[in-house]
Every structure is written in C-alpha cells, then in structure tokens.
Specification:
By secondary structure, the protein is α/β, with parallel strands linked by helices.
Length: 689
Amino acid sequence: MTKNPIHSDRLINRELSWLAFNHRVLQEAVRTDNPLIERVRFLGIFSNNMDEFFRVRVANLQRAMLVDESSTTTLGFGVQSTLQAVTNRVVELQGEYNQAYERVEQALEEEGIRILNEEQFSEEQEDFVANYFKQQIRPHLVPIMITEGRPFPDLKDGVLYFMVGLETQHGSKVTKEYALVQIPPHRPRFVILPSPQGNRSVAFVDDVIRKELHKIFQLFQPDRLYAHAIKVTRDAEIDMDDDLSMSLMDKMADGVSQRKNGDFVRMIYDREMPAAMLDLVMNKLDLGESENIISGTRYHNRKDLMKFPDFGRSDLVFPKRKSHKHKCFQGKSSMLNQVVKRDVLLHYPYHNFGQVVDALREAAIDPTVERICINLYRVAHNSKIINALVNAAYNGKKVQVVIELAARFDERHNIKISNVLQEAGIQVEFGVTGLKVHSKMFLIDRQVEGKRQRIAYIGTGNFHEEMARVFSDFGLFTANADLTDEVAKLFSFFSNNYERPDFEKLVVSPYQTRSTFLELLDRETEHAQQGRTARVILKLNNLVDAEMIEALYAASQSGVRIDLIVRGICSLIPGVKGMSENIKVRSLLGRYLEHARVLYFENNGSPTYFLSSADWMKRNLDHRVEVSVPIEDIQLQSVLAQYLDHQLKDNVHARKVDVHFSNAFIAPKKGGKTVDASELTHQVYAQPD
C-alpha cells in the first residue's frame, strides 16, 4: 500500500485526479473570456459533478471501509487515507467555488442582472411573489411536523429540503417546534421577477418560499419562523467493475443485502442553522460526527445553475454555431445509398446528429430493409431514435434493441423505453449477463436485387439527441462488409451469448481490447528500438488501468513519442526521467465536452487509427462490451489527423496534466498564434464545397 494518498512513484490516485478534472470545470467559471451566463452554468456543472462523485465514488470507498479498514484500491492506495485526502481537497474546492460564485454574481450585477433574496424584494416584486407562490408553489408543498415519536421522513437523494423552526413565546418560556418542507424538485429553480426597465431580477425559488412560508404555518401563530436548507447524497450503487480488489468487491456484494439500500454518504446543511436544529437532524438521521457532514451556504443544489436563465442576452452566452449536414448527404434522397458508395464520418456537434435519426427513419420505410439492430445505453427523453424504431416495427421491419438497464442514473428511463419498445412488438434484449453493453452501434439489413446489403453505424457517443449538442463525438457509417458482418456477429452474440465470436477487424471488450492495444504499443516499441518513426496519440476520457499505463511507460523508455489528450481522470505520471520523459499529457475543456475516443499508432509511416467507445479503465477493458473500429479510409484518416493536430496545438482550452494537479493553461508562446481547437474544427466543417 502506498503511504502517499495522492500519488505513488508510478501512479496518481484516481479520486484525486477526478477532483483535478472538476477543478478544470471550475476554472471555466472563473475565466472572464467565457460569456457570463456560461460561467454561471459551469458553476452548475461543477456542482452536478460533485454530487455524482459522492453518490458513486465516495459511497463505494465508504462501503469498502466498512468491510475492511485496511482495504486498498487496485492502484495500491489506502481507502482510508484516500477518503481523508478527498475530504481535504473537497473543502479546498468548495472554498474556491464560493469565491467564484461571488465573482460571477458581482459580474451579473454589473450587467444589470440581480439575484435577489427574500429581504430585497420591492413592493411590486412582493406582490408578484405572493401570487406566484399561491399559483405555482403552494399546491406542491407538504409540510411534515417533526415530533419525538414520529419517524423522520425518508429524505430523497439530491432533493432540497427546508428544516423549519417555529418559536412561540409563552411568558418567559419559548416553545420550539420543527417541520420539514421539500422544495418541489420539478418546479423551475429560478423565478424571474418584474424589474425596472433596463434591469433584470431573479430569485431562487427557495427565497420565494421563505418569503411566503408564514402562510403555511399560520395555524401555529409563531413569534419567530426560520428555515434552513439541507440536502443528502445517497449511495447510488456499487460498481462491480470498479477499481477495488475483486476479493473486497465480493465481500461488499455479500454484505449489501444486509444493509439499507442507498445509505447517506454526505449531508450538506446551511452553516447558519442553529445548533439545536442541526443536532435534531443528525439524531433523526442517525448520523455520527462524520467528515461528510458539510456546512454550506443557504443555497444547495447549485447544479440547477446549469439552467440559469439567459434573459434573452445573446451577448452573455456562447454564440450560436450552425451544425452542418455532411457533404455526402447534402441534396441526396437516400442517405443509405450514399453510405453504400463510401464510408461517412460524422463529428458532433459540428455535424447535425439529426442525420443519425434520419438514417433510421429512412430505414423504417425503405422497402428493401428487412431488419434493424441497435444497442442503447442512454437516450433522450422523448427520443426521436425510439420513435424511428417504433415506426420501423409498425412498417413490418424486424427490430432488435439491446438495452443496458444498468446505465448509471438512467435505469428507470431505460426500463420505461424497453416497455414502449416491447409494446410495439420489438425484440428487446438486456445484453450479456455480467457485462454492461457500452458500445454504440446499429445495423441495417437490406435485400437489394436479391443480395444482402448491410449498413452499420459505430460511434463513440450515445444515441442521445440532447447530449449530441454539447458532447463532441464521432460516428462512422459504413457498408464495408468486413465491418458490417462483424457488427452482425456481435448482435447475434447479444441474443445467444453462449458462444463468443471471433473478430478480425473490430476490437471488442472484454475479449480483445486490452490485448490488441498492448500489441500495438509493443509494435511502436519495436519500431523505436530499431530506429524507426514511433509515435502514439491517445485521446481518451479516462486513463486509469495500471497495466496499460505500465505499457505506455515501457514504450516511452524505448523512445516512443507519446501524446495523451485525457479529458478526465489520468493516473499516469508524465515527464519523469527514466520512466515517462517522452510522454506529455494535456486536457481540453471548453464549450463542448470532449467525449470522443480516438487512438493513433504511427507504425513507421503506415498509421493505424481507431474510434472507440472504451476508455482505458479496468471496467471498459474487462467488464463491459465495448467496440473500437479501425478507420482505414485514407480521406477519413486525414480528417482524424487534422482533428488530433488541432487538439495538440490548442492553447486556449488546453491544460497541462501533471502529478501536482496544477491545471496550468497551455498558453501561446511569446509572439505565437492563438489556437482554439474547437473553433478551428467548426471552421473546417463550415467550409463550402
């Protein structure tokens, strides 16, 4: 076990690296060159990320501690020391967050946008708030009195509550009563108030409720009424493909059934809450003096800042960018026929994701199409993808949909859509026992002039129209039989997974991904040792797997030049003499979430490119169905080469990733040009024919 909870000689702690990633999100909220409303929304993204971190990562570590206080992660870090290091860093980040929020709030005021609390409302605003509360909020409030003999209500994960105190004077004696009020989670968090011309005012719905709270408790006629916010974060799940040792995971799994589902892993409370009220809450929830009882400001659930109104101020949000139709599809009556002629590579959000929907809609009514197969991990609410599949079934096509029910946080939605699909007569399957299906593919089978014709789509991102507007991903359309036949094999495997198919072109987890990319790293090492050109470029979301990191170190020591573009977690330590001096790591974070996974191996001038659904984490390599597809078309390779070149030259959004978590921006050299990879990519796709 490594004594340093942050990093060892060869690896960086996964949890601390993730917090470094979220710090990069916070940096975007501080940047004054980002539009102001977008800075507000980055504050919301930071908060949302932190909630998920506690629900999953901290929860998992806490469960491990209950099983074995001396437990370690697979990277060799002590769970107990990791939790303490996480707590320390979270406190630091929360301090930076509060400072960032204050700066952003001040900047909003300078732009004539004020966030008002209940004590700052004008008479006109008070009248508006009273009516808004009566019409929009009061019907949704259900106050629950907290008494000695009554169990405390079951608090929902991530939902905001008010603890309400009512004090009544009886001579020299003061009686205190308490109540719990849930802030309606499905109502807008921000209420736009009437304002003087030229200014805009907005309030948290919390303060609208605070202003009118006395109307709910008129029966008690309290002399003093006050409310303080609380929020709990619950254990979301155990990742059985996580980075804890398998023996420990087995122990944890055995103990799960004996413990309450969704235990608390964090409680945040208003630091102004009276001590007696806080003690009551902790006693009722049976919470001890834990490091995850966190004092905060009066406002929790800052994730709602992601939906902060823009007041029609186009100057305070990112300028609109047009997403384009691919040149191969422009003016063509059939997308599928164009794919038969040549492979087509889409790049979202620069290309319009609607083209994926259009391809499925075309397949739904094409008389030559006999079957459509697709695997779904996440889809949008009111998904057009689902509508297209239902339409295909109604038109007599055989439709096979493989749904991953264990997609984190989307489980309920995926159950719902599986019912919708089954009602339409669609064959719905739930993947492979013991493996999450995380690939992103569909297959269209046609009969054209008596011959079978297959068209496949293989992507790096989910079939989710909303995410495709802000997630940067690639998707390949192909009719190449070497690829489409193997996609067909994989869908057959989903139905009959007692026999594993062989793959020559596709690289499929959990069977080949680790071994294939280790072999490709070995090939680059051999080239370097023989004095040939040897280079690797990996663009990933996360790099955690120890074996893959050691292989990168070995390649570096042999002289392979390695550039890593890692958006999120990176456990590799770059730039260490004798270990990783030939490895550079950068992270790009800006307007779009860089989600595409692109892999490049130089191969002495005959490069190999892959698009992949898999990060280099143990779960993706060994415990999920993932697909990496080789890109062999020379023109498409040039598209990826240009894209990677822009990513490696970016000096606007790029940060240096190192063992110190400095997150230092990579600035232009003195007298050098500014390079914004996202803007350059947009310009490439905006060029006319």
